[in-house]
Amino acid sequence: MTSTTSTSEQLAGLSATTLLRFATAGSVDDGKSTLVGRLLHDSKSVLTDQLEAVQRASLGRGQEAPDLALLTDGLRAEREQGITIDVAYRYFATPRRRFILADTPGHVQYTRNMVTGASTAELTVILVDARNGVVEQTRRHAAIAALLRVPHAVLAVNKMDLVDYAEPVFAAIAEEFTAYATELGVPEVTAIPISALAGDNVVEPSAHMDWYGGPTVLEHLETVPVSHDLSHCHARLPVQYVIRPQTAKDRDYRGYAGQIAAGTFRIGEVVTVLPSGRTSRISGIDLLGKPVDVAWTTQSVTVLLEDDIDISRGDLIVPTKDAPTTTQDIEATVCHVADQPLTVGHRVLLKHGTRTVKAIVKDIPSRLTLDDLSLHPHPGQLVANDIGRVKIRTAEPLPVDSYADSRRTGSFILIDPAEGTTLTAGMVGESFASPEPVKDEADDDGWDF
Fold first, then answer.
1. How many CB atoms lie within 10 A of CB 230?
2. CB-count exposure of residue 436 (10 Å: 0-12, 13-18, 19+)
C-alpha cells in the first residue's frame, strides 16, 4: 500500500500560512469523530501505519470498511463504547492553511471537556444528525461557543444520506439553528449539508446535493477569515521570568521575559507595570536573541526598560495609555470542571496569566441551565459541568480585562490549594445571559484580606 499522507511535505515551507484552531462538537452519535477522520483521510493527512491500524481494528469489529472515527478515538474506553470521552487534538495542514483541531465529547457529562477544547478555538463545527435536527445538546454546545466568544460557527448537518439528501430537511435545521445562535450572539453561522461516512461535502463537493452551492467543510476551514491584525487589541505582556545574566559582558542587563498575550509592543512606548503602577519606557525588545523594534501576540520576547523597576514573575506590562484597572473583586461566568463542588466560602487559588493569588468565593449568584438559558438563582454550589456566575474576592489586586475584550487576559482558573488540581475555568465580565447584580445585604466583616 502506498502512503496516503503528505503531512511532512505540507508542513514544509508553511511558515507563511495562517493557523486556524477549531473544535468539533455535537450530540453523541452525530458523527463528530467520523467527520474528523474523514477530514484527515481525504485531505491526505493520515500516515500509512495509522490507516492500517484503523483497518485492522475495524476488521476485528466485523466492519468491512475502515471506521475513520478510530483515527481520533484513541482511548480504549472510547473504542469499546463507540463514543468520544476526552478531547482529542489533531494537527494537520493543507497548502492553504495549518490547523489545530480539538475533537470534543458530545455527552452532557463531558461538557467541561468541550469547554476545554473550545476555549482557544477560533471556529466551532457543531454537528447535527439530519434525522433528529436541533436537540438539547446542540443548543448546549451553541451556548458554550457563545459564552467562550468563539467568533465563527459551522453547522454541519450530517447523515444527509439517511434523509435522501433532501434540501427541505437541511433548510429547516439550518434556519432553526441560525435563529438560536443569533439570539445567543454568535456573530457568524455557516450551514453545510454533509455525510461524513460517505464523504459528501467534507473535502470534495457532493454529487448528490447539486442544490447546495456553498463550500465544503475543508474549503470553508481554509478560507474563513482569521484576524491576526492585533493593532487594536489591548497590549498585554505577563512576565514569566526576569533575566539577569550578570556576566562581564551583560553586567547591567535586566530583561523581562514572557509571551505576549495580546496586542503589540514597540521600542520607545511608555508602559506601566501592574499591580505596582510604576511606569517606564521600553528601551529594547529581544526576540530569539536578536533585537527587534516591534513584537506582537504569541511571540516570546524579552523587554528591557529605561528605568530600574522592581518587577517579578506574575507582573503585567501594559501600555500606560491602555492600562486595565486593578481590582480585588471579580465577577465572572465560570464552568466548574472538578468532581469536588465549588461552594460559597470556598478558599481557592486564582491563577490569572502568570500570577497566582489566594481568593475566596464570595457568592454564586446563579447557575445557568444551557438547554433553555434559564437562571437558577443562588444555587449555593456548582458541581462538575455546571456553568454559573460567581463573585470572587482576591487577596491581592489583579489587572483583569473583560473576557469579551480579551480571551487571554480576561480568563482565569481556580485551583484547589491543597491538591493543586484545577477546579474551575472562569471568564471575567458579563455573559450573554448575565443575571441582575445581586446586592449583598451582609457587609464584608469577617474577611481576612
1. 15
2. exposed
* pLDDT for the residue 119: 85
Which tens digits make up the pLDDT trace of 102-124? 888 766 666 777 888 888 899 99
User: pTM here?
Assistant: 0.78
Cα–Cα nearest to 384, from 324, 316, 441, 338: 338
For the beta carbon of residue 372, count every other beta carbon within 10 angstroms: 9
Q: How far apart are CA 145 and CA 139, in angstroms?
A: 10
Q: Which helix (H) or strand (E) holds 217?
A: helix 217-223
- Per-residue pLDDT band at 72 (split at 50, 70, 90): low
The C-alpha atoms of residue 124 and residue 187 are separated, in whole angstroms, by 12
Closest CA to 346 of 412, 390, 397, 398: 390
Pick from 158, 245, 203, 201: nearest CA to 41: 203
Phi, psi of 379, deg, nearest 5 = -70, -15
- Which region holds residue 293: left if phi is over 0, alpha if psi is between -120 and 50, else beta? alpha
User: Which cell numbers hold the place of 286?
Assistant: 529581544
Q: Which of 221, 196, 187 is nearest to 100 (CA)?
A: 221
Which cell is 139 given?
Answer: 443548543
Look at strands 355-369 and 264-266 and give their pairing: unpaired
Residue pair 136/107 in contact by the 8 Å Cβ criterion: no
Helix (H, G, I), strand (E, B) or coil at 126: strand
Query: 174, 187, 144, 106: which is closest to 433 by C-alpha?
Result: 144
> Rounded to the nearest 10 degrees, what angle do helices 167-184 and 136-147 cross at?
40
- The grid coordinates listed for 180 are 438560536
> Residue 27 forms beta bridges with which residues?
none
Q: Report DSSP state, residue 353.
A: T
